[in-house]
């Protein structure tokens, strides 16, 4: 059995085991190694974290597919953990665009990936229902043709685009599950009743919840009690890192205050994290 087959089996199994899978999001090989050293069992890329590291705003199309997959390949190579990728909207509107992107993701060493139903257009931010379902159906067919398990996550993006429509979100997630998605995900859900409704609607499929936002007042233990199987953090950890950097640099630029710089991780400690 190949390494990718083993990782694919492992990633799939993590969604079926008891307890909550906590899947943090590195933005480069170094952050991936640090997270692996802390004992996390799987990782996921972050399109926003990558965009920030390239000095770009996060927006649909801000990072090309080639750039995203090259970054994902670096993260895959940095650790022995299964890695899932944020593949945005599949880098194209058509179902075949999504399928092609997933085949390229598999070739990059990934064992999971998410496809969202956001268009990237202000005038029509969410794909029409029928097209959105066809995109997931084509994505599922593509990953089922691989010679290893690839966990497909389907994302319903209503809540990130000013449309807090729980009924439509659930309708979409149920349809995506029926179209072949393995994991369902509606980023932006923060209320207990909304999360419970999604979990119950798509059961027994696992549900991912985005954590790290102050507006989500539920603990990880509480989310697990609600039936959530997986959580991810999106760009949160990247923003934590950039926030500490900016705070220290702002103090230095404004008043010559070195206290922020003195809080840096000791050189030998960070150097040892990247040993081997």
UniProtKB/TrEMBL annotation:
The keyword rRNA-binding does not apply. It holds the Pfam family PEP_mutase. The keyword Metal-binding applies. GO terms for molecular function: lyase activity. It comes from Phytopseudomonas seleniipraecipitans. InterPro entries: ICL/PEPM, Pyrv/PenolPyrv_kinase-like_dom, Pyrv_kinase-like_dom_sf. Keywords: Lyase, Metal-binding. This is Isocitrate lyase/phosphoenolpyruvate mutase family protein. Gene3D superfamilies: 6.10.250.2750, Phosphoenolpyruvate-binding domains. It comes from the Bacteria.
């Amino acid at each position: 059995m190949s390494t990718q087959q083993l990782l694919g089996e492992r990633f799939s199994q993590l969604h079926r085991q008891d307890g909550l899978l906590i899947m943090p999001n590195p933005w480069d090989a170094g952050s991936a190694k640090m997270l692996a050293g802390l004992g996390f069992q799987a990782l996921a890329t972050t399109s926003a974290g990558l965009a920030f590291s390239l000095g770009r705003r996060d927006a649909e199309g801000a990072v090309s597919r080639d750039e995203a997959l090259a970054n994902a390949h670096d993260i895959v190579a940095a650790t022995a953990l299964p890695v899932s990728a944020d593949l945005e909207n599949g880098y194209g509107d058509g179902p075949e665009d999504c399928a092609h992107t997933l085949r390229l993701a598999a070739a990059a060493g990934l064992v999971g990936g998410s496809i969202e139903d956001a268009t990237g257009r202000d005038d029509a931010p969410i794909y029409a229902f029928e097209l959105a379902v066809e995109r997931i159906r084509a994505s599922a067919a593509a990953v089922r043709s691989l010679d290893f398990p690839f966990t497909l996550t389907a994302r319903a993006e209503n809540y990130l685009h000013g449309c807090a429509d729980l009924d439509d979100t659930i309708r979409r997630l149920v349809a995506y599950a029926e179209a072949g998605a393995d994991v369902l995900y509606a980023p932006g859900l923060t209320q207990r009743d909304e999360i419970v409704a999604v979990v119950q609607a798509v059961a027994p499929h696992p549900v991912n919840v985005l954590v790290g936002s102050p507006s989500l007042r539920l603990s990880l233990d509480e989310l697990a009690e609600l039936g959530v199987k997986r959580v991810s953090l999106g760009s949160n950890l990247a923003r934590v890192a950039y926030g500490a950097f900016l705070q220290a640099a702002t103090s230095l630029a404004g008043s010559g205050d070195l206290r922020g710089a003195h809080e840096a991780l000791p050189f030998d400690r960070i150097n040892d994290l990247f040993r081997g």
